[in-house]
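Provenance and format

Records in this collection were gathered into a single text stream. Each protein contributes a sequence line and a C-alpha cell line. The two records reproduced below are adjacent in the stream.
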Amino acid sequence: MGTVSESLRRFVIERAEARCEYCLLPQAVALHTHEPDHVIPRQHGGRTSAGNLALACFRGNRYKGSNPGSLYPLTGELVRFYNPREHRWTEHFRLEDGVIEPLIPEGRVKVNILRLNDDARVTERRALIAADLY
C-alpha cells in the first residue's frame, strides 16, 4: 500500500515537470533526487495514489516529515499545508528575488516547516535564477 510503483513515480515526475511542487527546484540541478511525497501522510490516512502524491525535493521532504499541517504563527491555529493537488502555487506563494513569499496561511506554514527560505536555499535559488535554470 505504501510503496510507490515505478510507473506511478514516473507519472508524478512528469506531472510536476520534474520540479519540486513546493519550492519549484528543478530536478536537473538538484544534488539529490526528488521523490514522491504523500501530501496527506500515510500515518494520517493518506493513500499511495496519484491524487495524494506530489514531487518533493529531498530537503523539503525531510523537513515536512509526517506533518499534514502546522500552527499558524500569527494565530496559533492549526493550518493544513498547501496541497498541490488542490491549490495553485501562485495563489499561495510569490517568488521575489529568490525568496518564496507566502501569501496566505497555508503558504506560510509550508514555508516555515520546509524551511524554504533558509539562507542557503535563497542563495542557491538566486544563483539558479541568474543562470536561467530556475
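Adjacent record:
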Amino acid sequence: MRQSEIKFTVELDNDNVPDKIYWDATDNPNEGLSDTKGVSIAVWDHYHHNTLKIDLWTKDMEVGDMKRFMIEIMGGIASTVRTATNDAPMADEIDTLCRTLSKRVEAELRAENQADK
C-alpha cells in the first residue's frame, strides 16, 4: 500500500505565537520545505461525531489575507460538497455566502486604501 505524508513545522516566538510556518508533503512538487503564512486543518472525529480543527497563522499575516483565506476555504468546501455529496443546493448556498463575503472584503480594502490617501 502506498503511503503519503504531510508535515507542518511551526516556529514560535517567546509568547508561543507562530512566527514561521513550513510544510512539506510526499507529493509536494517543490523540493524541501515550503513556507506559508496560514494553515487550517480539520479532521473528522467519527467516534464523537465532531470536527477537530487547528487554525494557525503567522503574526505577520495581514487581516485581509486571513479573511480571503477563510473565504477560499469555504469555496473549496462548496466544491467538495458538490462533488462528494451531490448536494448542489447546499454548495450553491456556500458559494453565495462566499461571493457576499468577497464583496465585503473588497469594500473594506477599498475603504482602507481611500483612508490611506
